[in-house]
Amino acid sequence: MSSPRTIDGVTLNDQTDFAAFVRDVLRGEGGVGSRRGDSQPLDWILRAYAELAGSGSPYADRLAQGVADCLTAAEPEVRGQALVFFQNKPPAAGGERVRDLVAGDRRLFRGVPDPIHPGTDLDWQLLAALAARMAIGDALAVDLARDEAVQPGRAAPLIAELADADRAWVVANAEAIVRATPAAGATLLIQLQAVVPDLVALGRRIVPLCHGDRRFEIDIPRFIDDPAARQQLLDLFRAAAPSRA
After folding, report:
1. How many structural domains compose the chain?
2. 3-state DSSP call for residue 134?
3. Which of 19, 33, 163, 168 is most buried, by CB atoms within 10 Å?
């Protein structure tokens, strides 16, 4: 048996149903405390997890597994917060379930508006959680991300981490990635600028495919370090702009 732990007046012990407890917390019904800077119920879970993990308590893994169980909860706001947890804590117990969800039936995510991040759906957040797993060296996550990156509209939350994890594949498949997701082009260029021998040559391949990305002319000036390359990429973008005549 493990010794009970009390956090903010909430006692966790071997009899705690962590899946039910986490679900109640994420629904705002868990009876846990909040702080002035909290923006969502997940903030308490993140604090509790950090405290438990920092002390080596076995309840850290059980709490994280409870969050993993909530990845398929009935309520979108619960699923969304569970995804944010694993975006922030990808090594936590249960995080591998993100891979299973990406590879499986995504009806709980695709096209479901994200209550936490307006303008995205839960599938975007699921792929962002997959990206976080790539960042910790999960080779199976990289395999899944390659398949996702060439599907229409799916590369944006993945491309930065995928470019780090498998640079050669991203460079070789740059056109397919950007053709499927024009908004991934600027991020791809920004992420690879320090490691490809000729950034402008890569730009010639993909910049004409970036139209439809409203942020291209905002992000390239901000994040491309070399002034000459920056200007040439902008010139390529403007030259390839569809005629308004």
Report:
1. 1
2. helix
3. 163
